[in-house]
Amino acid sequence: MTLLNDGTEPRFATDVITFYHPDFWGLESADAVRAWALANPERFWERVMNALVEAGVTGIELTFAPGDIDSVLRAFGSAPAFHRDLAARGLSVVSTFIADSESPDWRHGENLPGIVADAERRAAFLAEVGAELLVAGLPMRTTFGTRPPFFVDAAYMARMADIAHMVGEAVAQFGVKLAFHTESNSTLWYERDIDLFMALTDPRYVWLCPDSCHIALGGGDPVAVARRHSQRIALAHWKDAVKPIDVELTIDETVFAQQQPYMTELGTGIVDWKGWADAMSLTPGAGIVLIELDEAADPVAALRAGTAVVQEARA
C-alpha cells in the first residue's frame, strides 16, 4: 500500500448520493425517497451514518436534497451538533457540493451577490463541521444544434474565472477552498475546458476536483488531466465509466439520468485505476479517496468493492 508523505494511509469517503437508490430504502422511486427523507430527516441520516460505519468509510460529501445542508440542520438543529454526532461514530464531513439547480445561475452577472452569499453560507457551515472543501461546477452546455448557439470560448471562460475568483476569495475567509468538478455536458467537461479554466484562474483561490468518470465520458484521459493539474487538485471523485458518451444528449433536467447508463462501479469500466491512483498520490488532496457511486442499491457492498479496487490500485 502506497503511504502518504506523513506515513499514513488516505481516508475513504463517499458522496451522499451513494445512498439515494430507492431499493436501499425499500421505496418505489427517487421521488419517494426525497419525500420520505424530507419528512424523516433524523431517520435518513441515522441510516446513512450506520451504513458508512458498516462500509468502513469515514468521510462524506454533502450534496443536493435530501443529503444537503438544510436536511442536516432539520435533523440535528445545528452544524456543531451534526459534527459531534459524526465524530462519535468516527465520521466527518470532507466537503459539500453546490448543485447547479440549488444556487444562483452563474451565467447571469446580476446574480453575483447571490452567488457569493450562497457560497459564504455553505462555507460557514463547513467551518462549523470541521471541513474545508466547497465543490462547485460551471454551468451546463446547451444541446448541440440549439439556435442561437452557445460557445464555450475564451470570453465565456474569462467571465467564469472572474466569478470563481470572487467566490474563492469569499470562502477563503472561512478557511475553505473552492474546487471545481468536471461534470459531463457542463462547460468544464472536456480536457480543453479544464486546461483553459485552470489557466485563467489564480491557484491561490481556485482548485480542481476532477471526476475520473466524467472526464472519460467526454473522451478525455483522466490520468493525463490529473498529472497536468496535480498541484491544484484539492479533492477528486473516484468513479468509473463504461465508455465515452457517443451521442448528443438533450441538455435539460433529464440530462443526468441520460448520462447514468455510461457510469459503472469502480473496476468494471475503462478508467486506468493504477495510473489514476499514482497521479492522485502526488496531489494536495491525496489524503482523501472519495468513491462516488450514484444511487447504489446496496451501498455498503458497493463501497466495500470500490475500496478494494482502490487498495489494489495503490498497492
Task: Note down, in words, how this protein is organized.
This protein has 315 residues and is an alpha/beta fold. It contains 13 helices and ten strands. The model has no long low-confidence stretch (mean pLDDT 95). The chain has an eight-stranded parallel sheet. Strands 8-9 form a two-stranded antiparallel sheet.
Give the SSE map.
Elements: E1 11-15, H1 22-25, H2 30-39, H3 41-55, E2 59-62, H4 69-76, H5 79-88, E3 92-97, H6 112-128, E4 133-136, H7 154-172, E5 177-181, H8 191-200, E6 207-209, H9 212-217, H10 222-228, E7 237-238, E8 240-241, H11 255-259, E9 263-264, H12 273-280, E10 288-291, H13 299-314
Parallel strand pairs: 1-2, 1-10, 2-3, 3-4, 4-5, 5-6, 7-10
Antiparallel strand pairs: 8-9
Helix pairs in contact: 2-3, 3-4, 3-13, 6-7, 7-8, 10-12, 12-13
Gross morphology is: globular
Largest sheet: 8 strands, parallel
Number of helices: 13
Mean pLDDT across every amino acid position: 95
